Amino acid sequence: MSNKPTVVLVHGFWGGAAHWSKVIVALARMGYGDIRAVENPLTSLADDAERTRKMVAQVDGPVVLVGHSYGGAVITQMGDQANVQALVYIAAFAPDMGESPGGITQAHLPQAAPNLAPDSDGYLWLKADKFHESFCQDLSADEALVMAVTQKAPLAGTFGDNITAPAWKKKPCWYQLSTQDRMIHPENQEHMSVRMGAKKVLKLDASHASLASRPAEVAALIDEAAQATAG
User: Fold this and answer.
1) How far apart are CA 85 and CA 81, in angstroms?
2) Is residue 143 part of a domain?
3) How many domains would you assign to the chain?
4) Closest by alpha carbon to 14, among 51, 38, 40?
5) For all residues of the chain together, what is the average pLDDT?
6) 3 pLDDT exceeds 90?
7) Is residue 114 within a helix (H) or strand (E), and if so which, with residue range?
């Protein structure tokens, strides 16, 4: 039996649980035997927080919660569960009470903001022909194509959903900042990581998709958080 905590991975907008594939493999090779990746509906912050909360509640033991992109807002909203020992943010939103991902985005608009397009059903898409340059410019064209075709669009209203009780004020946090991020402006990431008092801020010369382009470093940060809060 491994004495390592369960790692619960939470994806963001325009992707699903499979965005964590390389991190999952890296964590498994580090000895993590219980890794879970939630598949959120991206229909509202309340829906996504409840789906993730239920997954964490099914774990009998300590959990390290990891959120990428909008997944950071999800773990911020629901991460104050008793068995959550650490929060890890990967190029992610970490709103304060009364803040939303959309509101934070407005402080410093990211480079790729013009490449978002709503459809007639209220879902917000990242234009397929702009996906590579916007989301994952440090991945191959083939990888970007698959991400673009399989992207999971959120309901646009989810951007405006406010946090009610930020878990980062109660749980120890780690943050990975992508300096070449075109989806969440690096200055917004800097502001959020400093404000939360992160135990460590890992800056990577990476795109928004650092979980795919720099999985070894991301997995190492998760492991660092797990070890620092063990016991």
Assistant:
1) 9
2) yes
3) 1
4) 40
5) 97
6) no
7) none
> What is the pTM assigned to this prediction?
0.98
Which residue range(s) make up the domain with 104? 6-228
Which tokens go with 128? 């397929």
HSE at residue 224, side-chain half, CA atoms within 13 A, is 17
Name the band, by pLDDT with cuts 50, 70 and 90, for residue 231. Answer: confident
Of how many residues is the chain composed?
A: 231
H helices of 39-174, where?
45-57, 71-78, 101-107, 131-135, 141-149
Indicate if the pLDDT at residue 70 is higher than 60: yes
CATH number of the domain where residue 171 is located: 3.40.50.1820
Bridge partners, 8 (sequence order): 36, 65
Say if 1 falls within a structural domain.
Answer: no
On the 0-12 / 13-18 / 19+ scale of CB atoms within 10 A, 159 is buried
Query: What tens digit of pLDDT does each residue of 115-171 get?
Result: 999 999 999 999 999 999 999 999 999 999 999 999 999 999 999 999 999 999 999
142 C-beta neighbours (distance < 10 Å), count: 9
> Are the beta carbons of 86 and 171 closer than 8 angstroms?
yes
